[in-house]
Amino acid sequence: MAGPSVADQEVTVPTTVKGVVARAKGEPVEIMDVIVPDPGPGEVVVDVKSCGVCHTDYHYREGGVGDNFPYLLGHESAGYVSEVGEGVTHVEPGDFVVLNWRAVCGECRACKRGEPWYCFATHNAAQKMTLADGTELEAALGIGSFAEKTLVAEGQCTKVPESDPAVVGLLGCGVMAGIGAAVNTGGATRGMSVAVIGCGGVGCASVAGARLAGASPIIAVDFDDRKLEWARQLGATETINSKDLSEDEVVERVRELTGGFGVDLAIDAVGLPATWKQAFYARDLAGTVVLVGVPTPEMQLEVPLIDIFSRGGSLKSAWYGDCLPERDFPALVDLYEQGRLPLEDFVTERIGIDDVEEAFAKMGRGEVLRSVVVYS
Prior knowledge:
376 residues, Quinone Oxidoreductase, Chain A, domain 1, ER, 6-stranded parallel sheet, alpha/beta, oxidoreductase
């Protein structure tokens, strides 16, 4: 018996969309045709509705994350599932999702000991999106959502209550990293004193997380009055402009605001040796330091070992705010919808896909908390 004719066979045509591509280190991004393949087993295609312009995308462009150019940038996103591959059961077409870049495996030693937020074997889509000439693209953080559609692993899609994509999509990276640094990693609670050093998007999110947890006082430290005002709007009770202060003077100011003791929780949202040391010495005895700002590989830290021993407490790093997307994203969207978490305050401007390069410049000048690309 003859098989089906060619005309009867289903023919799939890969989807072509416009995407923001970094082709070489330090060069301006380009808007290029991107080929999105049909989803394979365990994969999902998402119609992207928003994508925040994050420092991590800029680091990709500058070669600070790797040298696997060209990169399809974008990762801080929300949208709707449009297609699913074989074996996908977690989501279905039409679901509203926030994308995450840590799809937990459920099988590694961290997952098996009940700490999936530390998953050591997170994964992305197996297939690569490509340029029109077949050149494979490295998707930023395994997402690549400065594009009208993107291909991700099933576990990178987190279903949340339907809401404003430009707002809740920010939970996909910076806002979650900051809130999680305060609440998950730092364990902020009611009445705990908190200092946040560095008040960009992640630092301001740490302030918002500390406020959500009932911490007080919440001390914001930065050298830019505009950023300090953002922090105050998001919950800081005290601010310190560090522009003309030495490291020791910043520490002394924090102590003055906490009865001479220092804070219970100090968050470094910058990631420099100098700011980490400020956080270390600005905390009370047995206090906690959380590093959420990302250092560069060449940075070195020198602290007398006796100071680490004698001050006690905990020295931690926040990985993606130690979040579990399935647990944290829906809860934070609910808090936003209830008016208890002002996520909309993080959206400084809504822009088009052609405006990403200028958004990087505005971010570098400290003019925005977040520029967000919005798709119709």
